[in-house]
Automatic annotation (TrEMBL):
<keyword id="KW-0813">Transport</keyword>
<dbReference type="InterPro" id="IPR003593">
    <property type="entry name" value="AAA+_ATPase"/>
</dbReference>
<dbReference type="InterPro" id="IPR005892">
    <property type="entry name" value="Gly-betaine_transp_ATP-bd"/>
</dbReference>
<dbReference type="Pfam" id="PF00005">
    <property type="entry name" value="ABC_tran"/>
</dbReference>
<feature type="domain" description="ABC transporter">
    <location>
        <begin position="25"/>
        <end position="265"/>
    </location>
</feature>
<keyword id="KW-0067">ATP-binding</keyword>
<protein>
    <submittedName>
        <fullName>Betaine/proline/choline family ABC transporter ATP-binding protein</fullName>
    </submittedName>
</protein>
<feature type="region of interest" description="Disordered">
    <location>
        <begin position="342"/>
        <end position="362"/>
    </location>
</feature>
<dbReference type="InterPro" id="IPR017871">
    <property type="entry name" value="ABC_transporter-like_CS"/>
</dbReference>
<dbReference type="GO" id="GO:0005524">
    <property type="term" value="F:ATP binding"/>
</dbReference>
<dbReference type="InterPro" id="IPR051921">
    <property type="entry name" value="ABC_osmolyte_uptake_ATP-bind"/>
</dbReference>
<feature type="compositionally biased region" description="Basic and acidic residues">
    <location>
        <begin position="351"/>
        <end position="362"/>
    </location>
</feature>
<comment type="similarity">
    <text>Belongs to the ABC transporter superfamily.</text>
</comment>
<keyword id="KW-0547">Nucleotide-binding</keyword>
<dbReference type="InterPro" id="IPR027417">
    <property type="entry name" value="P-loop_NTPase"/>
</dbReference>
<dbReference type="InterPro" id="IPR003439">
    <property type="entry name" value="ABC_transporter-like_ATP-bd"/>
</dbReference>
Length: 362
């Protein structure tokens, strides 16, 4: 399966002599702060990653980290100062303005943070807007818009006006508009951050359920690590214009690349993220495998592991799809992940204490 989207050494510099600034950054002759003092802003610095078909790739970072600028380069709304963006093997940075508009209208859709609905158009007309731009006949675009609205839980609201909808419902219309075009790639820029917490979680649930059905390729921008870990197949963490780590939620939680990433993860509820495959010990002694009376798979949630460990005197065995033992999870291993959160993530030598209490309660 070929890569759907590829970003290669992307830079975006605003201000004077951007090309010269890129070269200085490449040669380590200046950093971001030095350039800023000279009136030049390096918004994105040497960003490279790939996104596979059907993957939700989340880019997260604090305000000013460059994540939204990076997203805008992916569909040509912002031209890179240097580097390339390839979509299905096509170099978007080499396209003319007309060719880029064609790609954006048919292959790449964007879901904005603030809904961006037309108040003078009905819900159906808003959902069908991208198809109207494509020149799709009215009957077909209304049919496809209604199908997309139904997928987003808005069947029956087609004739309503945007101001008759709640914020969450308006965001569903924005999502339906992106889905109606049947674009191969969805770009979502802080799409749920303007919503109340309960509605935001509902929208996250909606996206997860839609993805199970549609298998879209999605790049999702957020500043919320819990949202990133809930939605992302992989996560790219940005700081000061640079991508400092790319990995699964479990990779980032257990093996943070540096102290900056670790500081993001310190308040995350690990029990909601970790699985048996992430915490198991792969070196299995024969007696451990023979004595295990509780078994799990690599996908077994952490909380279920705790319950199993509380019932068993021996380590929990982790099996592959054919029933072979691929690892074990000793109780002390679980204690290490639950207990001393201030130590380096992934170590398992914490003293008995709070972790044992959690296992006992399980």
């Amino acid at each position: 399966m070929s890569t759907r989207l590829e970003a290669e050494h992307l830079y975006k510099v605003f201000g004077r002599r951007p090309g010269q600034a890129v070269e200085r950054l490449r040669q380590n002759e200046a950093d971001r702060e030095e350039l800023r003092a000279q009136g030049t802003t390096a918004a994105v610095i040497d960003a490279s990653f790939t996104v596979e078909p059907g993957e939700i790739f989340v880019v997260m970072g604090l305000s000013g980290s460059g994540k939204s600028t990076l997203l805008r380069m992916l569909n040509g709304l912002s031209e890179p100062t240097a580097g390339q963006v390839r979509f299905d093997g096509q170099d978007l940075t080499a396209l003319s303005d007309r060719e880029l508009r064609e790609v954006r209208s048919r292959k790449i859709s964007m879901v904005f943070q603030h809904f961006a609905l037309f108040p003078h158009r009905s819900v159906r007309e808003n959902a069908a807007y991208g198809l109207e731009v494509q020149g799709v006949p009215r009957a077909e675009r209304e049919r496809r818009a209604d199908e997309a609205l139904a997928l987003c839980g808005l069947a029956g609201w087609e004739r309503s006006w945007p101001d008759e909808l709640s914020g969450g419902m308006q965001q569903r219309v924005g999502l339906a508009r992106a889905l109606a075009t049947d674009a191969d790639l969805l770009l979502m820029d802080e799409s749920f951050s303007a919503l109340d917490p309960l509605i935001r979680r509902d929208m996250q649930d909606q996206l997860v359920e839609l993805q199970k059905k549609l298998k879209k390729t999605i790049v999702f921008i957020t500043h919320d690590l819990n949202e990133a870990m809930r939605l992302g197949d992989r996560i790219a963490v940005m700081r000061d214009g640079r991508i400092v780590q790319i990995g699964t939620a479990q990779d980032i939680l257990i093996r943070p690349a540096n102290d900056y990433v670790a500081s993001f993860t310190q308040d995350v509820d690990r029990s909601r993220v970790l699985t048996a495959g992430a915490v198991m010990e792969q070196e299995v002694r024969g007696d451990e495998a023979d004595c295990a009376c509780e078994t799990a798979t690599a996908q077994t949630p952490f909380t279920d592991l705790c319950a199993m460990s509380a019932r068993a005197a021996h380590p929990v065995a982790v099996l592959d799809g054919e029933g072979a033992v691929i690892g074990v999870v000793p109780r002390q291993r679980l204690v290490g992940f639950i207990g001393d959160e201030e130590r380096a993530p992934g170590t398992c030598d914490s003293p008995r204490g709070e972790g044992e209490k959690v296992l006992a309660r399980a």
